[in-house]
Amino acid sequence: MESDSAATGYGVVLVTASSQEEGKAIAQALIEAKLAACVTLMPVHSIYTWQGQVMDEQEWQMVIKTELAQFPRLESKIRELHSYEVPEMIALPIVAGSEPYLQWISSHVAADS
To answer: What CATH number does domain 3-108 carry, 3.30.950.10, 1.10.150.20, 3.40.50.2000, 3.30.70.120?
Structure first.
Protein backbone atom coordinates (compact mmCIF):
# COMPACT_ATOMS: atom_id res chain seq x y z
CA MET A 1 0.00 0.00 0.00
CA GLU A 2 1.42 3.39 -0.94
CA SER A 3 1.92 6.06 1.69
CA ASP A 4 -0.57 8.47 0.08
CA SER A 5 -3.37 5.99 0.86
CA ALA A 6 -2.45 5.62 4.54
CA ALA A 7 -5.18 5.69 7.14
CA THR A 8 -6.16 9.02 8.66
CA GLY A 9 -5.88 7.94 12.31
CA TYR A 10 -9.67 8.02 12.57
CA GLY A 11 -11.93 5.01 12.46
CA VAL A 12 -15.25 3.41 13.13
CA VAL A 13 -15.68 0.72 15.74
CA LEU A 14 -18.50 -1.77 15.26
CA VAL A 15 -20.18 -3.12 18.39
CA THR A 16 -23.46 -5.00 18.71
CA ALA A 17 -25.69 -4.77 21.78
CA SER A 18 -28.54 -6.96 22.97
CA SER A 19 -31.11 -4.14 23.03
CA GLN A 20 -31.65 -0.53 22.03
CA GLU A 21 -31.48 0.45 25.71
CA GLU A 22 -28.09 -1.20 26.18
CA GLY A 23 -26.77 0.37 22.96
CA LYS A 24 -27.97 3.81 24.01
CA ALA A 25 -26.44 3.47 27.47
CA ILE A 26 -23.07 2.43 26.04
CA ALA A 27 -23.23 5.19 23.40
CA GLN A 28 -24.04 7.84 26.02
CA ALA A 29 -21.16 6.70 28.23
CA LEU A 30 -18.70 6.79 25.31
CA ILE A 31 -19.78 10.31 24.30
CA GLU A 32 -19.66 11.59 27.90
CA ALA A 33 -16.17 10.10 28.38
CA LYS A 34 -15.04 11.74 25.10
CA LEU A 35 -14.06 8.34 23.70
CA ALA A 36 -16.24 8.89 20.63
CA ALA A 37 -17.59 11.86 18.73
CA CYS A 38 -20.73 10.09 17.50
CA VAL A 39 -22.40 6.70 17.86
CA THR A 40 -25.00 5.63 15.31
CA LEU A 41 -27.45 2.90 16.41
CA MET A 42 -29.23 0.61 13.95
CA PRO A 43 -31.39 -2.48 14.46
CA VAL A 44 -29.79 -5.56 12.89
CA HIS A 45 -30.51 -9.27 12.63
CA SER A 46 -27.51 -11.43 13.53
CA ILE A 47 -26.99 -15.13 12.87
CA TYR A 48 -23.87 -16.49 14.57
CA THR A 49 -22.48 -19.46 16.45
CA TRP A 50 -22.16 -19.20 20.22
CA GLN A 51 -21.16 -22.08 22.50
CA GLY A 52 -21.82 -24.64 19.77
CA GLN A 53 -25.30 -23.38 18.87
CA VAL A 54 -26.44 -21.33 15.90
CA MET A 55 -28.08 -18.20 17.26
CA ASP A 56 -30.63 -16.06 15.41
CA GLU A 57 -31.06 -12.76 17.25
CA GLN A 58 -32.23 -9.17 16.95
CA GLU A 59 -29.42 -6.85 18.05
CA TRP A 60 -28.47 -3.19 17.84
CA GLN A 61 -25.39 -2.25 15.82
CA MET A 62 -23.35 0.66 17.10
CA VAL A 63 -21.12 2.47 14.61
CA ILE A 64 -18.73 4.44 16.79
CA LYS A 65 -16.76 7.31 15.20
CA THR A 66 -13.50 7.95 17.02
CA GLU A 67 -9.75 8.36 16.86
CA LEU A 68 -8.19 4.90 16.67
CA ALA A 69 -5.64 5.85 19.34
CA GLN A 70 -8.61 5.76 21.74
CA PHE A 71 -9.34 2.07 21.05
CA PRO A 72 -7.76 0.63 24.24
CA ARG A 73 -9.75 3.02 26.47
CA LEU A 74 -12.90 2.60 24.38
CA GLU A 75 -12.60 -1.21 24.56
CA SER A 76 -12.16 -1.06 28.34
CA LYS A 77 -15.26 1.15 28.76
CA ILE A 78 -17.38 -1.09 26.52
CA ARG A 79 -16.28 -4.24 28.42
CA GLU A 80 -17.22 -2.50 31.69
CA LEU A 81 -20.77 -1.73 30.47
CA HIS A 82 -21.62 -4.54 28.04
CA SER A 83 -23.79 -7.53 28.97
CA TYR A 84 -22.13 -9.95 26.52
CA GLU A 85 -19.31 -12.22 27.64
CA VAL A 86 -17.54 -11.60 24.31
CA PRO A 87 -18.89 -8.39 22.75
CA GLU A 88 -18.12 -7.63 19.11
CA MET A 89 -15.51 -4.87 18.89
CA ILE A 90 -14.06 -4.38 15.43
CA ALA A 91 -12.10 -1.24 14.57
CA LEU A 92 -11.99 -0.21 10.91
CA PRO A 93 -9.74 2.64 9.77
CA ILE A 94 -11.14 5.59 7.86
CA VAL A 95 -8.74 5.77 4.93
CA ALA A 96 -10.20 9.02 3.62
CA GLY A 97 -12.84 11.46 4.81
CA SER A 98 -14.07 15.00 4.65
CA GLU A 99 -11.44 17.09 6.45
CA PRO A 100 -14.06 19.21 8.30
CA TYR A 101 -15.77 16.02 9.53
CA LEU A 102 -12.50 14.44 10.63
CA GLN A 103 -11.61 17.64 12.48
CA TRP A 104 -15.05 17.55 14.13
CA ILE A 105 -14.31 14.00 15.37
CA SER A 106 -10.98 15.19 16.74
CA SER A 107 -12.55 18.15 18.53
CA HIS A 108 -14.99 15.86 20.38
CA VAL A 109 -12.62 13.04 21.36
CA ALA A 110 -10.30 13.54 24.33
CA ALA A 111 -6.57 13.45 23.71
CA ASP A 112 -4.87 10.36 25.15
CA SER A 113 -3.90 10.76 28.78
So the answer is: 3.30.70.120
